Amino acid sequence: MPENLSQWDARVNPSRFEEYAEKYADFFVMTRRDGIIELRMHTDDGPFQHSWAAHNAWGQAWLEVGNDPENEVLILTGTGDRWHTGDPAALWHTPFAQWSGDSQLKMYYDMAKLLENLIFSVDIPTIAAVNGPGTHCEFATACDITLCVEDADFFDPHFLGGGVPGDGMGLTLQRTIGIKRASYYMYTGARLNGRTALELGLVNEVLPRERLLPRAWEIAEMIMQRPRAARRLTHAIVSRPWKQALVDDYGFHAAHQLWGMTMGQAGRLDMLRQMSGRFQDARPEQDQT
Fold this sequence. Notes:
Blueprint: H1 17-23, E1 28-33, E2 36-41, H2 52-67, E3 73-77, H3 88-91, H4 101-121, E4 126-130, H5 138-141, E5 145-149, H6 169-177, H7 179-188, H8 194-200, E6 205-207, H9 209-224, H10 228-261, H11 268-274, H12 276-279
Parallel strand pairs: 2-3, 3-4, 4-5, 5-6
Antiparallel strand pairs: 1-2
Pfam family, one: ECH_1
Protein name: Enoyl-CoA hydratase/isomerase family protein
């Protein structure tokens, strides 16, 4: 439903949907219907492959989506049977301490804006539909509603890989499943599959893969039946705890992760390589609760 602004009112026109959909086409397939915008992460129309360009694109894409008044509800999902994949060896072939100062600074802002721009700049209801295992589940967890499939694999890989869990997943675990449980999952990297995530309060529904995205659209269409003011102001209430969490703790978490990355690089890549199955195709052998 288009805005009905007062006759004297006006706004500076944002980027058009067609423009930013094309701009981020290498990372998202964007579709919009009746005010509901769906962002499907992908790489060459297959499961999303992590890259430093993609790490930068997330925060920018949230700004474009949030700035377009024609977007009323956001659905975020992945492609195929994986939420997110990656090759640690390809990403971390150069120790962080050897990156240029500008690249190190860019890493900090990309980490920060990945969550901050989603929470502070997208002022509409958000629904995540986690379609399978994969890392970077923090922004799915921070959405207003989170749906997933049974073989989702919510986990924080940083400590197992010799790093510090500071880029958001540890923080979202603390704020959803509690401090004591979160510390266990941050240290062990144990799997939180769909059923366990539901039991602990990390997600709202667990669905068969073929029902996941249709259910997200069902909820989005239900939300769209309510007045615009009710939608946006309810989202403001729902997202306020996340805003408080980011203001209170996120900079602290991120700075400690990056500080840790400048020290003790020996052996870290070998640890990441040993975990490569978690990032790609292998499924953990057993669930941990």
